[in-house]
Design goal:
Layout: E1 2-3, H1 6-26, E2 33-39, H2 43-58, E3 62-68, H3 74-86, E4 92-95, H4 105-111, H5 123-130, H6 139-150, E5 159-163, H7 170-179, E6 183-187, H8 194-199, E7 203-206, E8 224-227, E9 231-233, E10 236-238, H9 247-253, E11 256-257, H10 264-283
Parallel strand pairs: 1-11, 2-3, 2-4, 5-6, 5-7, 7-8, 8-11
Antiparallel strand pairs: 9-10
Helix pairs in contact: 1-10, 6-7, 6-10
The structure holds NADP nicotinamide-adenine-dinucleotide phosphate (NAP).
Length: 284
């Protein structure tokens, strides 16, 4: 089985970004800049924001962190977003989720100018992706696509199953696979006979967040597994299918798979960095 090594590919992508940012610097040009907004003091959210800042700076890009108190009002948050929308030195804006309950998440996310939408999840960007003419792509689905392409996994004419239909992962991934000419079946919590459906697929993408959602024998021999989920079991991080326990069986059965950890996870952050540079290019 071929390991779809997201950690390695993410590193390569980051090196390419670093080289491009260095060229901009040497040419005396403005550098790409990401604005991160965190409301409240959730430790997990703070560590995600810090990790994004660290990545941005490590690649030579600029990062501006806005850490706002839990009681921040909708109005003052919108004011900050409008200011960043207008700021010509800011290329990407990312509002860390979840927001405190008193804030209207949809309204806040939609207030970000779609041309500065670092996550690629703004309705306008999802709509443009649907038309096949994207401005910017959502990070995790684009990371999956990069992995499949880099490892030359054929999509054209293949049967693909995507388990999960969230706007963050499942729905955009299914669209991208279809645009690469796979025949896509999208499954969710109401799907009957999940195992039967997956057994027929050449490519299975799982993004449900349910450990042991499928057993290795629910996948066709020679299939490709992209396990997006980040669950925990007694050994630590695991996917919906991939775990320390199932890895040796998958190794014998599949043509290729993303490990968990080290598969899709590192690609998501690399794609965020890629998006900041991409927004900068559009902006220039
Ligand atoms: P989500 O919003 O909770 O969506 C989960 C999806 O899975 C829903 O569409 C749900 O169906 C479906 N589902 C749940 N249980 C199912 C079952 N038993 N059978 C079939 N489908 C089922 O989660 P998400 O944000 O998309 O994230 C999914 C997973 O990916 C999580 O583990 C998350 O941590 C992980 N993730 C990883 C990365 C990464 O970089 N690796 C990035 C984002 C997310 P319904 O629509 O019917 O409810």
């Amino acid at each position: 089985m071929q390991l779809l090594d997201g950690k390695k590919l993410a590193q390569e992508i980051k090196q390419e970004i670093t080289a491009e940012v260095l060229r901009l610097q040497q040419d005396g040009l403005r550098l790409p800049k990401l604005a991160l907004i965190l409301v409240g003091d959730r430790p997990d959210s703070l560590s995600y924001v810090n990790s994004k800042e660290k990545n941005c700076l490590a690649l030579g890009m600029l990062c501006e962190k806005h850490l706002l108190p839990q009681e921040t009002t909708q109005e003052s948050l919108l004011q900050l977003i409008h200011h960043l929308n207008e700021d010509s030195a800011t290329d990407g804006i990312l509002v860390q989720l979840p927001l405190p309950e008193h804030l209207d998440t949809d309204c806040i996310l939609e207030a970000v100018d779609y041309r500065k939408d670092a996550d690629g999840l703004h309705h306008v960007n999802l709509g443009m992706m649907l038309t096949g003419n994207p401005y910017i792509l959502p990070c995790t689905p684009n990371g999956i696509l990069h992995l499949l392409k880099r490892y030359q996994i054929p999509m054209d004419g293949r049967q693909a199953v995507v388990v999960g239909r969230s706007m963050l992962v499942g729905a955009p991934t299914a669209i991208l696979l279809q645009q690469h000419h796979a025949t896509v079946t999208q499954c969710h919590s109401h799907t009957r006979n999940l195992s039967e459906i997956c057994q027929k697929a050449d490519i299975v993408v799982t993004a449900a967040g349910v450990p042991q959602l499928l057993r290795p024998e629910d996948l066709k021999e020679g299939a490709v597994l992209v396990d997006v989920a980040m669950n925990h079991d007694e050994h630590g991080l695991c996917g919906d299918v991939y775990s320390q326990t199932t890895a040796p069986i998958l190794e014998q059965r599949l043509a290729a798979a993303t490990p968990v950890p080290g598969g899709v996870g590192p690609m998501t952050i690399a794609m965020l960095m890629y998006n900041v540079l991409e927004l900068y290019r559009h902006h220039q």
